[in-house]
Amino acid sequence: MAQTLLALEPAALAEWVTSHGGQAFHAKIIRKEVLERGVLDYGEMTSLPADLRATLKADLPILSSTEATRTVARDKAIKVLLSFPARGGSVEMVHIPPPDKDDTRGATLCISTQVGCPVGCPFCASGLGGLERNLSADEILEQFVIGRSVGPIRRAVVMGMGEPLLNMEALNTALDAVHDEMGLGSRKITVSTVGFPDRLHKAARQKPRFELAISLHTADDTQRDALVPAMKGTSIESILAAGDDWFEQTGREITYEIALLGGENDTPWHAERLAERLNGRRCMVNLIPWNPSPGMSFSRPEAGTPEAFRDDLIARGLVATVRWSRGLDGDAACGQLRQRVKQS
Ligand code: SF4
């Protein structure tokens, strides 16, 4: 397997550069160009000697992935399917510009942590084929770098394909570089998980460099067992207790997410149960109306239902928002692009 730039730690890159006729400080320039500026062509790194640029170009590819497809939605969200020819598999990355075209603060980037997903939520295209493999730290970092090459980024959500808590070591390594070298602070990065309690307790004690969102989806234990099959038998109370522990350890509020499925978990009864569960907890609730996905029997909530659900939660003392997914016409729902390409 060919070595890539992003798979080399800074010290290893300095060694590579010096053993190929460059100076150690050239390694710093290269990482800065790639990580800070999103430059993906050595030819543009004009502060490097020409012969070093040529050597780098010939022997040290920056990325391990190739772009399989790119779709642009009407709202300008760009969805890229990246495939990894050497290690196998493909993942999705979405670059979502701010809704206001005069807003220059940059886009939100959505990245993946696994090829496929072992959790198997029945409403999600990413989990359809199960888990193929974990992404390595450099493959995760690569998505940030490609995202930055598309345009400025102001925040990132780890909400694409895969369950981040099941690949935490690689994610943490990638986020260290994102934080320290790309300048994206921990308040600007949100990791979304289905909330395995033991892993949350552990992660809370590792000085996490991200905000946490837990995909709860429902306050009813039996329904959650069906909606999040890999967590069957894990009580919602134990997940909420892990969330409380996270808040105590980190001092940061959690966001609870509900993918609203028409007629399934979006009724006033569900809103009431959720409010009872979260009562007295410092948290936010994000309601995400489900995106229709080919071959799935769920439906989008009826018009006005998400807002009514939100208002119900607010009336019961919670902080709640409806988040409509962006880029619907670009297959922006989790796992859809990869699924469509696999089927074609
Ligand atoms: S919703 Fe998330 S956790 Fe569930 S199958 Fe899809 S990617 Fe995995």
Ligands bound, unique: iron/sulfur cluster
State the shape: elongated
Unreliable segments of 5+ consecutive residues: none
User: Superfamily at the CATH H level of the largest domain?
Assistant: Aldolase class I
Return the average pLDDT rounded to an integer.
93
Cα-atom radius of gyration? 21 Å
Question: So, CATH architecture of the largest domain?
Answer: Alpha-Beta Barrel
Strands side by side in the biggest sheet: 1-2-3-4-7-8-9-10-11-12
Q: What number of structural domains do the residues give?
A: 2
Number of helices: 11
Q: How is this structure best described in words?
A:
With 344 residues, the chain is α/β, with parallel strands linked by helices. It folds into two domains: 55 residues, DNA polymerase, domain 1, CATH 1.10.150; 278 residues, Aldolase class I (TIM Barrel), CATH 3.20.20. A ten-stranded mixed sheet has the order 1-2-3-4-7-8-9-10-11-12, with helices on both faces. Helix 1 crosses helix 2, helix 4 packs across helix 5 and helix 6 runs parallel beside helix 8. The longest helix is centred in the last third of the chain and has 15 residues. Iron/sulfur cluster binds next to loops. The site of iron/sulfur cluster has 12 residues, from loops.
